[in-house]
């Protein structure tokens, strides 16, 4: 397929997936700006059906042209459960030069100035509180922008407590001193932050050189609390690199959310000598604490860890697996089944039978059902009589 056709196909694919979300528009009356500002709102497909669920929020500067590609990538990734569903807010900025007015900076100080200062306050003091009051949001906020708006998004990092948890900066046209200030901030930061930086191989020199300096300075800062990734896309221009960057950024930020894959299994779990159940527990605790995403432990992840425990004969860890099962699925037979399995593997069929009996009175889950529990009970009773 010719390169141009691939790009058109990818764009069409991304936009078509955006139809999974509910897309609406709103006008916000801003006292800071002294005017109304239009935004696009993308709600997840599950938003109305799941009344208790809270969602991370992705704020898009340059929302006029970034909304659809981001929405498509989010819809595609969440369809495969690789990234969570999220609320997407696109800020319109292409009317009568708004984009340039909104990002006005003092060239000497390298900080928002005049209309730029007002727009900075509009986002932080008006837009974010408005969205969080109106919609069911989790505490995890992401901001993204392209060239001058990507640079502007970085100003929220300058605050003592950064407003956003993750920053997606696509070919930023960095403000003066920014390549130094961001790295200095990262060296001192005390809470986890995600930072994605990208450029196209064909980016113009005046944009690319400061980006390279910023990349080097962030590496020198070397703070483990900063989850950082830098991409330079071969053959991409200042504009085409955006479609390459979006999925890369989202998958970087939500890497911990993804179901256990072969890389995570081989590199992080199978290398452990013990503590397999604790790894599973921590994976979902971090997902909640760092990403603000609260979901029950996936049964696929549970089975992966359970199988490794059985393979390594680490049967005592099945007790911890039972605790995890009871926390995430209190009405299901999972917890009692794990205890039954632990006693069975430890050679205590009498106690195993009791646990399988308890499990048979609870709700089925995954491949666990009442018939299976009854078979286990008969098997354990037979073993107990032989003993």
UniProtKB/TrEMBL annotation:
Name of the protein in its database record: Esterase
Higher taxonomy: Bacteria, Pseudomonadati, Bacteroidota, Flavobacteriia, Flavobacteriales
Listed InterPro entries: AB_hydrolase_fold, Esterase-like, Mycobacterial_A85_antigen, TPR-like_helical_dom_sf
Secretion signal, residue range per the UniProt entry: 1-21
Residues in coiled coil: none
Family annotation (Pfam families): Esterase
Keywords attached to this entry: Signal
